[in-house]
Amino acid sequence: MPSFDEVLKEAGEFGRFQKRVFFLLCQTGITFSFLFASVVFLGQAPGNYWCRIPGAAELSERCGWTLEEERNFTVLPLLLGNRSSGGECESLDIAWDASVSCASPLAHYGNHSVGNLPLTACHNNWVYKQPHSSIVSEYNLVCGNAWMLDLSQAILNLGFLAGAFTLGYAADRYGRILIYLLSCLGVGICGIIVAFAPNFTVFLIFRFLQGVFGKGTWMTCYVIVTEIVGSDQRIVGIVIQIFFTLGIMILPGIAYLVPTWQGIQLAISLPNFLFLLYYWVVPESPRWLLTRKKGEKALKIMHNIAKHNGKYLSPHYSEITISNEEVSNPSFLDLVRTPRMRRNTLILMYAWFTSALIYQGLVMRLGIVGGNLYLDFFISGAVELPAAVLILVTIDRIGRRLPFGISNIVAGIACLITAFLPEDIPWLKTTVATLGRLGITMAFEIVYLVNTELYPTTLRNFGVSLCSSLCDLGGIIAPFLLFRLAAIWLELPLIIFSILAVVCGVLVLLLPETKGISLPETVEDVEQLS
């Protein structure tokens, strides 16, 4: 009986059928990047806001003040009284009633100078010039509540983490395409609920669920693409990353054109419903069917692939070799039971953690260094395109391991140099920082490919999902680490990033080279990799 790779070679390793499925599934990269980075625009700081004095709303309505006039009566006295407060987080500890004059409301307090009037902390009494522009103004995530914006991104990454475990396991047990379609449906429904969440608690719950299902779409589509092409074409996994980058570049355009955060949320969520149409055009992974003892279904799909590719399978291909490895429900112990599997798993988990922490840290850093957010975000996405080109050029000539290690080391050195470059040469600082972003993007893209190639079919989806869960742990930590350390010294996060990246670059050189080899079918195959 022929092996699956032999049948795939005759049916076409990357023919018309695989190209069509590949292009369709690549669109998932765009929508996942929207979800991954959307907090930058959903959570933009409101341009102008202040704390309203109790009774000011009624007085403003009676006097016919504009918002600007009300702000002048509320905030300017604080500034004139030589107070350090700008009126955002504190207000005068007074209350305006019907006896207050419209022309000079503070004259009501007689001989008291404005500087002597007491202040009080603001509690859910903020006024925004654009009240629905972002979740910050929608749910009052300012002043003492500012940390809750970081929490919203951490919750999303926690959803990614839960999705990696639950849906990664489900995809290995119940099938790739079933879990992919259910995940697309879940992302769309949860995204709509997030857009119309009546309070921040509901927002967080469904943002978490959107993260769970979002991770299901991304990881499963990646595995399907990798499993239906030949070993020489597996770099298509890198091309999926290009579509992720395209999403990063498109997102600021959507945010620029759509004035409200609800509109942005709907614009990035609704496209997921279109992926449900893939039920009729994307088949189940034949590799997965073979591991579940469903050889007839796998062979039927292979005949269909051959037909669309203009090929013809030989009549003696009436059966395909099924892995002799006993199929069981995968567990973490399967990934660390044997020496090489254990080494690979631990190094890959660290690589995922480091890549995500540094990548998200550098993306969110754009929000605290100033500049035009929309333009800077677009440029930061465009910088990632050369990363994919460099990988495509080197990965089949040099292999996976060396570019993987060098890209991490380059990212680490670039972060360290950027931290100590003076501010008065911004072009050099930006150039070196861009090199760091390029390096960590390459590392992030290569880890997807290498992780897929280092696990057997029976454990591939579970293994990739579990290792990449450390990526989500890095994402949970990133916002808190960045903003807390930057409060001590703006460049301190870059020093932490540099240490993590260089250590990762050394460790990944211990992994086996997977260039040009067939995907391992069993744990024994992995143990034999040199």
Automatic annotation (TrEMBL):
Coiled-coil residues are none
Topology relative to the membrane, per the entry? Multi-pass membrane protein
- Which residues does the UniProt record annotate as the domain Major facilitator superfamily (MFS) profile? 74-516
What is the top-level taxon of the source organism?
Answer: Eukaryota
Pfam families registered for this protein in UniProt = Sugar_tr
What's its catalytic activity? dopamine(out) = dopamine(in); (R)-adrenaline(out) = (R)-adrenaline(in); spermidine(in) = spermidine(out); serotonin(out) = serotonin(in)
The transmembrane segments are 21-42, 154-171, 178-198, 204-225, 237-258, 264-282, 347-368, 374-395, 402-421, 427-450, 462-482, 488-511
Establish whether keyword Nucleus is in the entry.
yes
What Gene Ontology molecular function terms does this protein carry? monoamine transmembrane transporter activity; neurotransmitter transmembrane transporter activity; quaternary ammonium group transmembrane transporter activity
Q: What is its main location?
A: membrane
Set out the biological process GO terms recorded for this chain's protein.
dopamine transport; histamine transport; monoatomic ion transport; norepinephrine transport; serotonin transport
What name is this protein filed under? Solute carrier family 22 member 3
The organism named in the record is: Chionis minor
